């Protein structure tokens, strides 16, 4: 008997060779194959009259061949077959390219279905190489991703075998299906692959979208429960008032709220697993410093891991300034730390002399050991893989874990990306934070822009010019950062101190360039998106972004966040010659808003979830059918049902939940392994 767990090799039509290919694509079982949904469909049921078809749009017509099928050579290796078809509304010309076998099968005087893109003009519509079926065919045909090793047609045949022979186990409890008017799993799988009608397809899709979002959220809830393990690091004493007396600024209400939310977790006897999300400049570092200070005062060690050396150094300077004269000892461990100093720091960590350690990936080395680590903080968490964050936490016994992100994630996506974490949002700026004036111009303004930059540099300020590419690309008419730097250095800015920074430089040269800019030795930094994270230079007040249309909105906002960090008024200039309506709409969002969360929501609407899910570093399985923006209502509905279900049956021991439990176990293993 074929089940979802059956090895794909043993399905009729597959065999060893095809199984090897399918497994390389992650399809190792029949169940995985059934969840490999079509990328598109040919709808042969929606037939249009020839005269009513829209140009440059795919559609289906039913028409009779009324002329002989004539062939002619365009060139030696290309034969074109032409004939005319007719329905009650008009005529159309059909062209087939190098399709001799098909052309010989067609008969003048017979009626057929033709599916393809309509071209031509008002007087005579044309279809080039349409799909052709007998006139009595009635159905919606799936189209699967194809390759030289397995065509869509071959995969369709294999899929029919799977759909017809597999014994499927229901995954959703009957009570939830009835309440939400969802079809059964067998109907859903049959009609997502081979829908009998458009209505059946919609019914099947609704069920499978709900199921995917339901199982994902249920799995994340299980993961969250498991992470709430007992923790010996209980923060009994709240030293927040003492911390506030040590800092030269006043915490915002949002910062205080997030600190208290974290301390509530840390005093509960269970491990904290919390994400702090805050826009650029919202004061996440101050929150981290407060929690590390309080943890040290309670007798435990803390570690803060940053993605770059300069960011780690900035955190170190900030926190040591706060902790001086308090008895709290801080250490800095990066790739640039000398061998002798590394040995001293590691020894001090191991024997408990260092209370707070700040560093980069250097903290992950096996011989970095702690005496009694109670709190692990990861800054700019999206720059680290899930396994890297886990490795740092594994150096203690279930320490409290805090991850910080300045990349605003739309709240819809936050439910999914961080479903295994409790989320705190800093939604208030510290006083004195400057708003940034943003302008969108074309390249005709370049000379004026250069003069505008010079005005700031002459006043002692600094700035950035951001390019989308490091090196030249023949297909794109874009000046790369390296060439741009050389041109400016010898031309417009020859009298100024320029620096170059991009991702292909080695780590040492990158750190050197960032440090020179940080120390004020470089006035104008020509760079790529490598500066998106890790440079906090309050003296930077001007940023120019070339070919701005090539960046996502959230990325533009992150780049812009490198300026306006001091008391000086700052400006960001977006340069583009792209006149498309889409580009204008996108860049207007950046121009008119400094709110990262609002921008992220707009980015999700305009570009879909790919921009946020592209890195895969969050470790979650890929969405097979759900769209996190288009299906956000179902996302929330499924979330409520998960909450109700787990409230009544937290271990999923009821018999109707057995199928669901198996699916969650499979997902849970994927989440744990990522």
Task: Identify the notable features of this structure and list them briefly.
674 residues; Rossmann fold; 23 helices; 24 strands
Question: What would you say about this model in short?
Answer:
This protein is an alpha/beta fold and 674 residues long. The protein contains 23 helices and 24 strands.
Architecture overview:
The chain has 674 residues and is α/β, with parallel strands linked by helices. Among the domains are: 1-39 and 151-166; 46-137, Nucleic acid-binding proteins (OB fold (Dihydrolipoamide Acetyltransferase, E2P), Beta Barrel), CATH 2.40.50.140; 269-426, P-loop containing nucleotide triphosphate hydrolases (Rossmann fold), CATH 3.40.50; 436-593, Rossmann fold. Helix content is 39%, strand content 19%. Helix 17 (507-518) links the parallel strand 21 (498-501) and strand 22. Mean pLDDT is 86; it is low at 610-619.
